[in-house]
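Chain A, query sequence.
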Amino acid sequence: MEKKLIIIGAGPAGISAALYARRAGLAVTVVTKGPGALAKAEGIENYYGFAEPVTGAELERRGIEGAKRLGVEFVTGEVLQIGFNDTFDGYKVEGAGFTLEAPSLVLAAGASRKTLAVPGIADFEGKGVSYCAVCDAFFYRQKRVAVIGAGAYALHEAEALAPHASEVHILTNGETPTATFPESMIVHTEKVAAIVGDDRVTGVEFADGTTLSIDGVFLAIGTAGSTALARKLGILLDGANIKVDETMATNVPGVFAAGDCTGGLLQVAKAVYEGAKAGLAAVKYVREKTKA
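Chain A, predicted structure.
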């Protein structure tokens, strides 16, 4: 295996990790779904090196161009799945139209800012509410399941469930579907009011008063951020944040995290610092693993 590093996210943390890892000699690929939270900032006035305010979009552009100048490769697309590769000596990152493998990953796709404030979601986590279809599909053989989401991420999770479940329902929660779901999947566009059950999930209540009997609910809202991807690898979380040590390493060997997804101060300076630490730690890990 070549000395590679995959970084998910092209914000300040991801680009900082890419710069440090590339300068240290690793082949680095950054996966990005496009402009992130930084690009939405109208003006940044408290960042080192800028005498005048700079827009978030301009700061993001400069960072990405700097990484490209050093030879960092970029893949644009939505990450749908991460997991171990076929030989279990590295990791595989899959998206629409691409598959990448590397011995190490850095998760820097930002914090999960979009959540579903529906009664029952938190209560039934691990008791019928799941965040990873590939991980848990086996437990829903010949059972009725629902996926909450309306886009490509929801379609990916539903397709992973389809070979196992007796029925797959798509709950768009009032949104217009942006993905084309197979006719075998039943699409419900009503707003979700609650997830209900006793010891485990038994159904979904909609805002219009109707109910759906179901055995399991999988959340796939919007796109998969760092926290959602972390769950797929069994990475430990601290609330909604990815748990890391002083080197930005997670509990899964070779997987690091940096930026907003680790919690704390949601600032560019903090993200750049953590990205640098994660990039250098990934270099050390890859070198030791490949006996460079």
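The chain has six helices and 18 strands. The mean pLDDT is 90.
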